[in-house]
Design goal:
heterodimer; A: Beta-Lactamase; Helix Hairpins; 4 domains; 45% helix; B: 145 residues; Rossmann fold; 6 helices; 5 strands; 46% helix
């Protein structure tokens, strides 16, 4: 038995090389200079079938002549190793894709190449995967582009090309938005910087010039979150949804106008009914010379004229779109004025009006007339709520506080309270629970004034227990608004 | 002849005063309620010949009271006039509601501000067999324009 010595001196026998030749997970064949296959392993036989006494081009490709540009011939000539991607047929006649590694076999270094070992590996599955990925990339119903660090598009899918044109090699901002410079707040730039996924809502221009609203996601390509070479941009076109949204907003606006007009008509009709009733009773009093009827009719006329004035005033103040006239004011003083104004009225109907003031509050920029209106609306609502409840003695409290940079006014009562349905509707136009007494605009106006101050109003209530309304004003915003509305100039000139 | 009883249910005192003043001219027994709950109580006590009912009232609505009246065996045929200042859409909703719930419709809808002559005629027609006689007499006297 032939024994050979390995590099480290271990003796290896022929069976070892034979087994190695058989067990290597590749299709291995050895060819001579005339392209005859002189030896092949079992893997090769299993894949390509019978090879004995045949030329390699016959076995690999079912050809009767050597391949054009045959790599084996080149390796025989120059002795270099070659790797190539080939297509052929397997033993069943099916198309086969494989990668071939060609290596020269020499008896000694520098002697001519006597044989070539061809080691091939089937890649048909990889090819299929590649084709599927390609198809997925091209046909997925969203826009996909891959950009490099210079914001140059290096790949774009079919959907993107259809909508934005032939774009590979051009700058993304030029293609997406027809801009000459990079977009401000570019999400791709953020991804290049931090290696994270970013989302944003964008408006671009398609190749036909029409606007496209799309939701963009940028993600790094590659596993490393540093030194990102490429970013993938995936976007979903939401133009159609945006269009629907616009239509809904428009429809809601129309409905709101309709509701406002209908509500106004309802209020006017009620007032007209009162005025006509007053006139009727006055007429009757005159014809019968009845003083009591005259007084009753006259009161009705006065009451309904006052209601007309309130309605017009509330409506005008609600429709007025203006910036509040901010001056440095003492919130506690504003509350004091309201207490003075309502104390007697409340007392007459058996309700106690109390103030709990935070003495540490300093002057803040407020529109005194606006806050006066808000407090008037909320206190008069609270008194009404107490009047509607017969169970206990009514108490209305106005509280001021300054916590964590937020100035707040809280108006609470122990009146009837509100159920969920009423709470939901209190800030809608013309909603009133007071029948003929309310215009349904008071709370709406209050909310508007609070919002103009950069604040917010909230309501908490339980039926039978009472309600509290809180107007909260972040002081930072009040001061910012004060600067914006020329408060500084006013202060300087004073 | 037995005095006819009319019940007016409306949350607005001015409306009550107005309607009462109009009907006061004729020999009606006028009773009032300023909310739906009281209205139902009074209707059960009085068994009126006619009910004038407002739709939009705080707490319980006129629609709810109307449904209860129609479900009450002793009040189910009592004539009802719906008097309301609401716009036609809500009248439409009212009509649709009673149709959907298979409730008999009210005898008349009158919109605020009312036409006195129309109101008196309707009340007369619904409470007497002679119909418009009383309204006609008052028109002759120049009281109703």
């Amino acid at each position: 038995m032939t024994k050979r010595k390995s590099n480290n001196g271990t003796e290896l026998s022929d069976w070892f090389y034979r087994e190695l030749f058989q067990q290597v997970p590749l299709n291995v064949a050895i060819i001579d200079k005339d392209y005859n296959i002189i030896k092949a392993n079992d893997n090769f036989s299993d894949y390509f079938g019978n090879w004995k006494g045949q030329k390699c081009y016959k076995v690999y490709k079912n050809l009767d002549y050597p391949c054009v540009g045959c790599n084996a011939r080149l390796t025989f000539e120059d002795g270099k190793v070659r790797v190539s991607d080939e297509s052929g047929v397997d033993q069943h006649g099916k198309q086969a894709h494989y990668v071939v590694h060609l290596a020269p076999l020499r008896k000694r270094a520098n002697s001519p190449v006597e044989y070539i070992v061809e080691m091939s590996r089937d890649v048909i599955e990889t090819k299929n995967w590649q084709a599927e990925y390609q198809l997925l990339f091209e046909r997925v119903p969203c826009y996909i582009t891959v950009i490099d660090r210079n914001y140059k598009i290096i790949r774009a899918n079919e959907n993107f090309r259809d909508n934005f044109g032939d774009v590979v090699g051009r700058q993304c901002y030029e293609v997406y938005k027809k801009r000459k410079t990079r977009c401000p707040n570019c999400p791709a730039r953020r991804t290049f910087r931090d290696g994270r996924v970013h989302h944003s809502d964008q408006v671009g221009i398609k190749k036909g010039g029409e606007k496209a609203h799309y939701l963009l996601t940028t993600a790094p390509l590659g596993r490393d979150t540093e030194n990102i070479a490429h970013v993938i941009e995936i976007s979903t076109d939401i133009s159609h949804t945006k269009q629907l949204e616009m239509e809904i907003i428009e429809a809601e606006r129309h409905a709101a106008v309709g509701q406002t007009v209908a509500g106004l008509a309802h209020s006017i009709k009620n007032i007209l009914m009162g005025l006509e009733g007053g006139m009727y009773i006055v007429g009757k009093g005159l014809s019968k010379d009845d003083k009591e009827m005259l007084d009753q009719g006259w009161d009705m006329l006065k009451r309904n004229l006052n209601k007309t004035t309130s309605l017009v005033r509330d409506f005008l103040s609600f429709s007025k779109g203006r910036l509040p006239n901010l001056v440095m004011s003492d919130p506690n003083l504003l509350v004091g004025e309201i207490i003075q104004l309502y104390k007697e009225i409340a007392k007459q109907v058996g309700i106690t009006l109390i103030a709990e003031l935070d003495k540490k509050i300093t002057n803040v920029p407020l529109d005194p007339s606006g806050i006066h209106t808000c407090l008037t609306n909320l206190v008069s609502n609270a008194i009404d709520a107490c009047q509607m409840s017969d169970d206990r003695e009514g108490i209305v409290q106005i509280k001021t506080a300054d916590k964590k940079g937020v100035l707040s006014f809280t108006i609470s009562d122990n009146g009837t309270g509100m159920d969920t349905e009423v709470k939901r509707k209190v800030f809608t136009t013309f909603f009133t629970t007071k029948g003929n007494q309310g215009t349904g605009l008071g709370l709406l106006t209050t909310r508007k004034i609070v919002k103009e101050h950069g604040g917010r109003i909230s309501v908490h209530s339980k039926p039978g227990e009472g309600s509290y309304f809180t107007m909260a004003f972040p002081k930072k915003r009040l001061h910012a608004l004060y600067e914006e509305t020329g408060g500084e100039i006013a202060k300087r000139t004073n | 002849m037995k005095q006819k009883i009319i019940l007016i249910v409306d949350d607005e005192p001015d409306v009550i005063s107005y309607l009462s003043a109009i009907l006061d001219e004729d020999d009606y027994g006028i009773h009032t309620a300023d909310n739906a709950e009281d209205g139902l109580k009074r209707a059960r006590e009085l068994q009126p010949d006619l009910i004038c009912l407002d739709i939009m009232m705080p707490q319980e609505s006129g629609l709810s009271l109307y449904t209860k009246l129609r479900q009450d065996k002793r009040l189910t045929t009592t004539p009802v006039i719906i008097i309301s200042g609401i716009e036609s859409q809500q009248e439409f909703d009212f009509r649709r509601y009673v149709t959907d719930k298979n409730i008999p419709p009210p005898d008349r809808y009158i919109e605020k501000p009312i036409d006195v002559y129309e109101f008196v005629s309707v009340v007369d027609a619904l409470t007497t067999s002679e119909g418009n006689e009383s309204a006609g007499k008052r028109r002759q006297q120049g009281e109703i324009q």
